[in-house]
């Protein structure tokens, strides 16, 4: 799909990866970029159109569909990590809060915008997922659950929307150098690289973007994921 001339909505566009999507979309000649944010006044890119959009709000989504009737690309980027172990005291509440933004947000937005994309020629939906769609990490286990569910959602949308010609793209990055991973002392991918690979992938019509070497490693390890990622619990239990 052509980025040049596209009309795009980016969720969580006020900072981090979302702000980088806005920048590069405008650089590549997108005709219009709606910058969705819980606080539209926090959108700083003057080339974008700020749009009040909390992805957990049905009313905000409905208003966005009214305002963005010319949309050709939806980028589900907004996300939260609370950082909960699966058996932590508040793990259910944390998991529900993460699912609200990371799963039901893209779910409701995709459902709401699918007819708009169809009316405008098919277009694309890009879902920002993670390497932890394919592996768990103890400290962010409930977040990883949400990204696995969002991966399944992405595959389901691809099946459903093929008939209307909508490209559905899964983006899998490992750690990215944004506020979300500020407390992580591990190698991080630049937002620039994640967005560049995403937009190259969309332009090439690819269904999946591996945003860095770590994500490629995690995906390629899936046939041996138990031994590779969970070696302490890989053997038979007595
Ligand atoms: N950073 C990483 O290591 C990493 C790795 C893999 C995947 N990802 C994914 O990449 C995406 C972007 O994350 P990031 O790294 O840019 O994180 P970030 O710096 O923490 O930014 C998160 C963005 O999401 C927005 N947001 C959160 N909840 C929202 C809601 N209910 N409605 C609308 N916007 C909401 C935030 O808005 P406010 O300013 O209002 O809070 C902010 O703009 C997320 O889907 C994340 O899961 C991140």
TrEMBL record:
Q: Which residues form the Ketoreductase domain?
A: 6-140
**Keyword set includes Oxidoreductase:** yes
Pfam families registered for this protein in UniProt:
adh_short (PF00106)
Keywords assigned by UniProt?
A: Oxidoreductase
Q: Does the keyword Transmembrane helix apply?
A: no
Q: Which molecular-function annotation in GO is an example for this chain?
A: oxidoreductase activity
Mind telling me which SUPFAM superfamilies this protein's record contains? Answer: NAD(P)-binding Rossmann-fold domains (SSF51735)
Q: Which family does it belong to?
A: Belongs to the short-chain dehydrogenases/reductases (SDR) family.
Q: Please give the name of this protein.
A: Unannotated protein
Source organism phylogeny? unclassified sequences, metagenomes, ecological metagenomes
